[in-house]
């Protein structure tokens, strides 16, 4: 079942409603009306969640006016559209974002105040949309907001997860995964579009059908069918410049088929089939450690890719009537390898459904697709067993084989040797035949981009070295950015006001003007005001830490923050080991004037990633000992805040003094947390990895603390395959830390809990934790010295904020629009 096509031509000059007034009195009346007639509550008994819904619906009405006008404008002017396909969109709470971007914050605050309702309290009650996990999903959200802000006509396509990843709680220091029920009370931002529903198939067989002209057309007969139903959320740009659409797909069974089975007496079978359909959009990243988990994840990726492509082709034909103009009017960006099956699926749609010949379909496909690579980690560059694909997606696998044959033939014609051809192949023959999704995305796209200068160069040298030789003009760099609206103006309003007072408010519309603040970095009065803003933010974080973790911390201490997905290459282990070293030094040398520190960790570990979950437990075990040792005298506190999400980040980041960006060099593609911290006046301690390299160039090496091995040095050490045992034995501080953790000093209930974790440092140390430890400790002592001279520190903090404008996602999106998409923008 495809979506219904309109029976009559679209009328572009239809009358539009008059824009609604935004004064406080009008808003007050409309909020009351929504509360009464949409929510069905009397103000006397209305709860805060009722007021939240009524306020969202009132704001949403104003967004809809601009949303429809944005869509009409794109149709009228036949502008090229961008379609951003991502398995994650970590959009966070939307109300403050929308109200702020529409410039209505004070009016809404006044309107609600007349009912004795506090706007900030309502903002805190809105649930975070559980549509992502980490940097990949938050980047997609920043990009969507920037596309709206600079007027790029765009759709975001993803999955409407019922539970998202999981809600993280702690049980005796261990991570516990619980369902994230963010949709339990509905989502007033979204619109269900039942008319935009597409049939998605799995399994079955492929039948060759001879056409009247003698050609053979392949017809896929799926064994399973389900519906992808669209739910649309408006994405508001700055000043309401444009409203684009985030379209999320929900999997639903095709009811008539199940009803027949149920009525025929197959009650259990019908219910199982329904549950199987719905399970596709239930959770983000189902564990793929089992064959069933792998199959569910592949089903997810194909489900949202196929629905999105069917929607794109339908919309294009509806407006233009032919497929030849696809590359002129459509740009599809694949956000990592998750939607890479789109290459084969688009070929199927163009050939099997629309009747195009192979060569024409391939030309169109390459013309519309581009691919962003986010990782050099082999496990993150997805591959799928060929046998699974042949069973689940037989026609798409046929097409993948045909693409592979064409690419390998091209490689032979260009004289590549056999060993290089095997590396280029879409089929990995080592240890079981698997389809390489990175290769599929690469060969089917006209542009492949990395997300930082270092990452892009490493991509050319490592994972795509041979494809780069075959197609030397395809790889380009687009360094990531973050939206300054959410990550400065909204999450840090006090700092935004201070900047406006000092350099004027124009930077809000042109973030490049933030550099004007640089000239004031040595101004003592500004330094004092800047530090005052930071302290206020730290007081709020201290209150949150007390509420959620039960730990009292001083806002006068240095707030040292590492918040990100828990992974060994991000090296939370290095950070907590240094905390143990500092703990030992404080106890051994109580006569020294130690800089008080609060080390804050937050992040989720994948449910099946044992070492990551063990590191969380270690952080909590170390915290329990350090925080309760009277010999420390409160000079060091360690905190792990559970259930890290966008809203928690919005409280933590403005309060940070020190930003931990300490990944193993060559393993972090870019990072965007590093940008958010620096924009809010935190100093960075980090390796020469990801976007840290470009941040060092923009900030100046004197305003960032860099330590550790380079990516080339990491490669050399790994190539030598030498265990770091001698180096560990030569470092008394490191040896003492490893022995304390490994012997159970911090785990008296289980002395062997961390033995294997510490033994791994002696045996292989793949992530260079031991090898970088001494350099990291020295860098932390440099941080202590800088903190001790608050004039120096505050000047550096101000320069960090002033020089971060280049890392705006507006700049990144303009580069995408100009260099890859050929899309309009301002």
UniProtKB/TrEMBL annotation:
Task: Please give the Gene Ontology molecular function terms for this protein.
Answer: glycogen phosphorylase activity; pyridoxal phosphate binding
Q: Which reaction does it catalyse?
A: [(1->4)-alpha-D-glucosyl](n) + phosphate = [(1->4)-alpha-D-glucosyl](n-1) + alpha-D-glucose 1-phosphate
Q: What is its EC number?
A: 2.4.1.1
The main location class comes to cytoplasm
GO biological process, alphabetically ordered: glycogen catabolic process
Modified residue N6-(pyridoxal phosphate)lysine is at which positions?
676
> What compartments host this protein?
Cytoplasm
Q: Which NCBIfam families match?
A: P_ylase
What this protein is called in its record is Alpha-1,4 glucan phosphorylase
Q: What is the lineage of its organism?
A: Bacteria, Pseudomonadati, Pseudomonadota, Alphaproteobacteria, Hyphomicrobiales
């Amino acid at each position: 079942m495809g979506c219904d096509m309109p029976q009559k031509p679209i009328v572009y000059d239809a009358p539009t409603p008059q824009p609604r007034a935004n004064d406080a009195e009008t808003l007050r009346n409309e909020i009351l009306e929504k509360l009464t007639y949409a929510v069905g509550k009397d103000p006397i008994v209305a709860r805060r969640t009722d007021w939240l819904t009524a306020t969202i619906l009132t704001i949403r009405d104003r967004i809809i006016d601009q949303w429809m006008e944005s869509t009409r404008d794109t149709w009228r002017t036949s502008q090229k559209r961008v379609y951003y396909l991502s398995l994650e969109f970590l959009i966070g709470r939307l109300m403050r974002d929308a109200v702020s971007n529409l410039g209505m914050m004070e009016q809404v605050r006044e309107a609600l105040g007349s009912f004795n309702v506090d706007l900030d309290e309502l903002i805190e009650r809105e649930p975070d949309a559980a549509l992502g996990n980490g940097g990949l999903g938050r980047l997609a959200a920043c990009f969507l907001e920037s596309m709206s802000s600079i007027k790029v006509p765009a759709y975001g396509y993803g999955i409407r997860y019922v539970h998202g990843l999981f809600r993280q709680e702690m049980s005796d220091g261990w991570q516990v995964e619980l369902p994230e029920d963010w949709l339990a009370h509905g989502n007033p931002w979204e619109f269900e579009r039942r008319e935009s529903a597409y049939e998605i198939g799995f399994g079955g067989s492929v039948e060759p059908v001879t056409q009247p002209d003698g050609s053979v057309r392949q017809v896929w007969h799926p064994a399973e069918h389900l519906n992808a139903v669209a739910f649309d959320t408006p994405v508001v740009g700055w000043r309401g410049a444009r409203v684009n659409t985030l379209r999320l797909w929900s999997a639903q069974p095709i009811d008539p088929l199940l009803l027949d089975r149920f009525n025929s007496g197959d009650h259990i079978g019908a219910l199982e089939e329904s549950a199987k359909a719905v399970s596709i959009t239930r959770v983000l990243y189902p564990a793929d450690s089992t064959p069933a988990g792998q199959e569910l994840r592949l089903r997810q990726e194909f489900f949202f890719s196929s629905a999105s492509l069917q929607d794109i082709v339908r919309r294009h034909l509806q407006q233009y009537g032919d497929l030849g103009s696809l590359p002129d009017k459509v740009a599809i960006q694949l956000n990592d390898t998750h939607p890479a099956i789109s290459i084969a699926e688009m070929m199927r749609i163009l050939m099997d459904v629309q009747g195009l010949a192979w060569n024409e379909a391939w030309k169109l496909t390459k013309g519309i697709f581009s691919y962003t690579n986010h990782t050099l980690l082999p496990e993150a560059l997805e591959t799928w067993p060929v046998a699974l694909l042949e069973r689940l997606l037989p026609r798409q696998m046929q097409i993948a084989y045909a693409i592979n044959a064409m690419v390998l033939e091209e490689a032979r014609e260009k004289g590549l040797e056999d060993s290089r051809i095997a590396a280029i192949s879409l089929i990995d023959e080592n240890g079981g035949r698997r389809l390489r999704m990175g290769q599929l995305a690469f060969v089917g796209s006209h542009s492949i981009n990395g997300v930082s200068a270092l990452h892009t160069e490493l991509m050319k040298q490592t994972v795509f070295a041979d494809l780069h030789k075959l197609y030397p003009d395809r790889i380009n760099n687009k360094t990531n950015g973050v939206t300054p609206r959410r990550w400065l103006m909204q999450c840090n309003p006090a700092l935004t006001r201070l900047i406006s007072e000092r350099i004027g408010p124009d930077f809000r519309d042109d973030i490049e003007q933030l550099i004007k603040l640089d000239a004031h970095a040595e101004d003592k009065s500004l330094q004092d005001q800047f530090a005052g803003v930071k302290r206020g933010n730290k007081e709020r974080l201290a209150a949150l830490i007390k509420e959620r973790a039960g730990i009292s911390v001083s806002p006068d201490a240095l707030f040292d923050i590492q918040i990100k997905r828990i992974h060994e290459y991000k090296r939370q282990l290095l950070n907590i080991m240094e905390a143990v070293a500092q703990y030992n030094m404080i106890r051994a040398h109580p006569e020294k004037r130690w800089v008080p520190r609060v080390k804050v960790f937050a992040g989720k570990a994948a449910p099946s990633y044992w070492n990551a979950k063990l590191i969380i437990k270690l952080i909590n075990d170390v915290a329990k000992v350090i925080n309760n040792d009277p010999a420390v005298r409160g000079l060091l506190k360690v905190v792990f805040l559970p259930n890290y999400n966008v809203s928690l980040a919005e409280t933590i980041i403005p309060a940070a003094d020190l930003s931990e960006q300490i990944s193993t060099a060559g393993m972090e593609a870019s990072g965007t947390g590093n940008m958010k911290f620096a924009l809010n006046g935190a100093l960075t301690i980090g390796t020469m990895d990801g976007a840290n390299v470009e941040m060092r160039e923009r900030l100046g090496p004197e305003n960032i603390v860099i330590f550790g091995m380079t990516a080339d040095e990491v490669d050399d050490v790994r190539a030598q395959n030498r265990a770091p045992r001698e180096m560990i034995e030569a470092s008394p501080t490191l040896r003492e830390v490893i022995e304390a953790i490994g012997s159970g000093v911090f785990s008296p209930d289980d002395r062997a809990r961390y033995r294997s974790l510490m033994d791994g440092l002696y045996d292989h140390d793949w992530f260079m934790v031991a090898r970088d430890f001494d350099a990291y400790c020295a860098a932390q002592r440099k941080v202590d010295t800088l903190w001790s001279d608050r004039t120096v520190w505050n000047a550096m903090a101000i320069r960090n904020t002033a020089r971060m404008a280049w890392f705006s996602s507006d700049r990144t999106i303009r580069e995408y629009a100009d260099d890859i998409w050929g899309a309009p923008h301002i």
